[in-house]
Each structure stands twice: as structure tokens, then as C-alpha cells.
Specification:
The complex is a heterodimer of chains A (about 220) and B (about 230). Chain A has about 220 residues and is mainly alpha-helical. Chain A has one domain (about 1-215). In chain A, about 80% of the residues lie in helices and about 0% in strands. Chain A is built from 8 helices and no strands. In chain A, helix 2 runs antiparallel to helix 3 and helix 2 (about 15-35) packs across helix 5 (about 85-115). Chain B contains 7 helices and 10 strands. Chain B has helices at about 45-50, 75, 95-105, 110-120, 135-150, 165-180, 220-225; strands spanning about 5-15, 20-30, 35, 60-65, 65-70, 80-85, 155-160, 185-190, 205-210, 210-215. Chain B has a 6-stranded mixed sheet, sandwiched between helices. Chain B has a 4-stranded antiparallel sheet with strand order 2-1-4-5, with helices on one face. Chain B starts with 5 loop residues before the first strand and ends in a 10-residue tail after the last helix. The relative contact order of chain B is 0.19. The chains are: A mainly alpha (about 220), B alpha/beta (about 230). The interface between A and B is medium-sized, with 22 and 30 residues.
Chain lengths: ~220, ~230
């Protein structure tokens, strides 16, 4: 499944380009909209990074399921011996890869636009962004399966996903700002625990519920 | 005595207040075929979707391989091949890649070899490396048939399998259906009219106003002046 999705993406490149363009747009807008002289640059940068990631994550999750809507391919998958939980895992993995690509691009742009340095603080971001990507991808993949079947589903996804993601989003922003300011990871325990709990909850929920949201019964 | 592959009892389906299927009774043994004919919106596709497990009946039940269609285990889904109005194919994959993908989904021992074989069987070997989105409707239909029959299922549910096919395409699909019957598969095919498949004697049923009339004699259908054959005879 994942190999098929990556092959399709490599052929079109639509998702990757869209994700990178969206990340760049968000960061450019925020760097000019926010007065970097009034707030700490790392706080602004962390917030801007997460805004870009959330938008990119929604796009990535939507794209991961888009291929299955052509020619009713999702029905072909549901009719096959493929376990729906495995289908969810494959879609989650695809969404995660898309989001990871966007994250790498967003981090590079963030460093450039907010005049940060490519140093150890950027490396400290990696586990925080990974946790955020897993949680958001898990949530967005599950919700995308629901909203994709409704009229106006593309608009519905952010309306549903963002409020649910708020706890992990706040934790991610706080942890990211702290990491960029030089705080060691083991001092961010409370934020990381929130993110881990979110990830476990929504990966499990997605695996168990996916069959019921994609099926027509 | 072998068990029926398909069995329904008082099968009904209602969408909102509109009954689409009413008290459908069907029993199909291995190696047997059935045509289900009817006009647009008669309920033919709905019947197949229920048998495929894509929809649940509103009343009654449907069994395939003795399993309730609402919860068919994976090992039985492996034995069902479905051809629907939608092809279930990926437009940006080639014909070969589409079949290899489904071969892997169905855990075939050699998906690539199976894909090659079925592309040959449906007359698409020369366009194996063309993307599906470049195909005509008839070519797509052939590839969809290959996808459905690739794992050599014991039950084939074919929704208007001859639609959009030229004469050669109809002959190919008819030949594949005949081969499936000969190896013991059960086949249910829907159509607007009864197609002729040489060497195969299918039972014929007609759905009208949601009710399926069993054992409708094909000669009566012919004498009724309905469209005789998609083969142009």
C-alpha cells in the first residue's frame, strides 16, 4: 500500500509541491505579520512552524486518501483481504511521510526567515516535531476518511481536526519554543507527555475505528 | 452435496422510505451462474453490493460461503471477485502495476507473473505499461475484469460486465466467465438483457419493483421482445 502511494506521489509530485508551497506561504506571511521586535524570535518561530505544519498535515492526510477516491479504489481495497487496520496504518504512514517532508522544508524556511542558526537547538526539535507529526497525521487520516465522503469535506477537515489537536498543538509549540531557546529535552517532560498521550490515543483510535468510517455499512 | 456459494432469504434493502429490494430469494451453487436482469434503478447493483459485503441489507440476510455478508472474514473475501461500475483501478498506475498491486493484496505467489498472464487473457498485453488513465472505457472494463478474476475467486459478482465492450471484448469476457464456471466458480452477472454465452447455461432472474422473479425462462424473455443479445445476434 505504502509503496503504491509513494509511487503515485513520485509520479505526480502534486502533494509534495503543495505541501512545501503551503509551508513557505504560511511562514512568509507570519514573519511579516508578526513584529519580531516585540516578542522573542524563538516563540514566534515556533508558533509559525506549527501553523505551517498543521496546514501541511491536513493537506497531506487528505492527499493520502485522495488516490483511493479515483474509480472507487477504496471499495477495491475494502473488498480485498486487506485488514482495515492495516489500510489505516498504510495511509497514516503516507500522511506521515508527506508531513515529514513538509516539516523539513518548514524548519529550513523557519531558520532562514527568523534569522535562527542551524545548531543543536534545531536538532532538539526533531523528536518534538516527530511526535507532533504522528499525532496530527493519525487524527487527520481518521477524520479525512470521514470528511472525504461528504460534500464540502475539504473544508470540514480543518474545522474538525484543529480543535481536537489543540492540546498537542499547545504542547508542541511550547516544547518547540523551549528547544529553540536552548532548554534540554528532559526539562520539557510535561509537554512531551501530552504529545505522547495524544499520539497513543489517536493512533489506537484510528486503527480500531477506520473500518467503520470507510465502510459503507 | 456441496454447500451453496450464495444464499439469500427474504433479502430486502430500503433507502430512506424507498424499498429497492424486497424479499429476494437466491441460491447459487458452485459451478453455476445466474443472470439478474432489470431496468435502470431496478436494484441489480444493490443486490451485488450486498452480496459483496459493501452494504448491509435492511431486512433478511445474505450468506456467501456460509458467512453473513456483513462480516465476511478476510479468508473468504479472498474468494470473491467483484466487477462494478467503477473499476477500482488507479489512473496513474500502469495496467501491469494495477494488477501487480491487486496480486499482492490477494497474496498471490507471483503477482508479476499473474499480472502478465491476465493482461494477455484480456488482450491488454501490448498496453501493459500504459497508465490506466489513458485507457478507453472498453479497455478499462477489460482491465477491471482482469483485476476481479486475478485471484481466481470462487464467486464472481459482475455488474454489467459487457458494458462498453466491443465484439472482441465481449468474447473475451464471455470466455473468462465460461472458464470460471468450468473451474467451479459461481457467477452472478447483471445486465439489462440476457447476453448469450456459448457453452454456459445460466439461470435468469428479473428484478422488477424490487422483487426478483426466480427461474424466469429465457425463452419467455426472448418472446417478450426484449433486447436479445449484446453480441448482436
Amino acid at each position: 500500500m505504502l509503496r503504491k502511494d509513494l509511487r503515485l506521489e513520485l509520479r505526480s509530485g502534486e502533494s509534495t509541491l503543495a505541501l512545501l508551497a503551503l509551508s513557505m506561504l504560511v511562514l512568509v506571511v507570519l514573519v511579516f505579520a508578526l513584529d519580531a521586535g516585540r516578542v522573542r524570535s524563538v516563540d514566534v518561530a515556533a508558533g509559525a512552524l506549527w501553523v505551517a505544519m498543521v496546514f501541511a498535515g491536513m493537506l497531506g492526510a487528505n492527499r493520502a486518501l485522495l488516490a483511493e477516491r479515483d474509480n472507487g479504489a477504496i471499495r477495491g481495497l475494502l473488498l480485498s483481504p486487506l485488514d482495515p487496520g492495516t489500510l489505516y496504518a498504510a495511509k497514516l504512514a503516507a500522511a506521515l511521510i508527506f508531513m515529514a517532508v513538509a516539516e523539513v522544508g518548514a524548519v529550513i524556511l523557519m531558520v532562514l526567515f527568523f534569522n535562527l542558526e542551524f545548531d543543536v537547538s534545531i536538532a532538539r526539535l526533531a523528536p518534538i516535531l516527530a511526535l507532533g507529526a504522528i499525532g496530527f497525521s493519525a487524527l487527520a487520516t481518521l477524520l479525512s476518511a470521514i470528511t472525504g465522503r461528504t460534500r464540502g469535506g475539504d473544508m470540514l477537515l480543518p474545522i474538525l481536526a484543529v480543535p481536537i489537536f489543540v492540546p498537542a498543538l499547545i504542547a508542541g509549540v511550547k516544547a518547540s519554543a523551549a528547544a529553540l531557546a536552548g532548554v534540554p529535552l528532559d526539562s520539557m517532560g510535561q509537554w512531551l507527555k501530552i504529545m505522547v498521550a495524544f499520539d497513543v490515543l489517536f493512533v489506537t483510535a484510528g486503527y480500531l475505528l477506520f473500518e467503520h468510517v470507510v465502510g459503507e455499512n | 452435496m456441496s454447500a451453496p456459494v450464495v444464499e439469500t432469504h427474504r433479502l430486502a434493502k430500503t433507502y430512506g422510505l424507498s424499498p429497492v429490494l424486497r424479499e429476494v430469494e437466491l441460491r447459487l451453487m458452485p459451478g453455476a451462474g445466474a443472470y439478474v436482469i432489470g431496468g435502470n434503478g431496478a436494484g441489480k447493483s444493490t443486490l451485488l453490493r450486498i452480496l459483496a459485503g459493501l452494504e448491509a441489507p435492511s431486512d433478511g440476510y445474505a450468506l456467501v460461503f456460509g458467512q453473513d455478508t456483513r462480516k465476511v472474514a478476510a479468508r473468504y473475501r479472498r474468494r470473491i471477485g467483484v466487477m462494478a461500475h467503477q473499476s477500482f483501478l488507479y489512473p496513474n498506475l500502469t495496467a501491469r502495476e494495477n494488477l501487480e498491486f491487486y496480486g499482492e493484496l490477494y497474496s498471490l505467489p507471483d503477482p508479476r507473473a499473474s499480472a502478465e498472464l491476465w493482461l494477455e487473457r484480456v488482450g491488454l498485453a501490448e498496453v501493459a505499461d500504459s497508465r490506466e488513465r489513458t485507457f478507453s472505457r472498453g479497455m478499462e472494463q477489460r482491465l477491471s475484469a482482469a483485476r476481479a478474476m486475478l485471484p481466481e475467486p470462487a464467486l464472481l459478482l459482475l455488474d454489467e460486465p459487457f458494458a462498453s465492450l466491443d465484439h472482441d471484448g465481449v468474447e473475451i469476457i464471455a470466455s473468462l466467465i465460461r472458464s470460471a464456471i468450468e473451474r467451479g466458480a459461481a457467477v452472478i452477472a447483471t445486465a439489462h438483457a440476457i447476453p448469450e454465452i456459448e457453452g454456459v447455461d445460466f439461470a435468469a432472474y428479473e428484478i422488477s419493483h424490487g422483487r426478483m422473479q426466480p427461474h424466469l425462462h429465457k425463452e419467455e424473455v426472448r418472446r417478450g421482445g426484449r433486447i436479445r443479445s449484446l453480441l448482436g445476434r
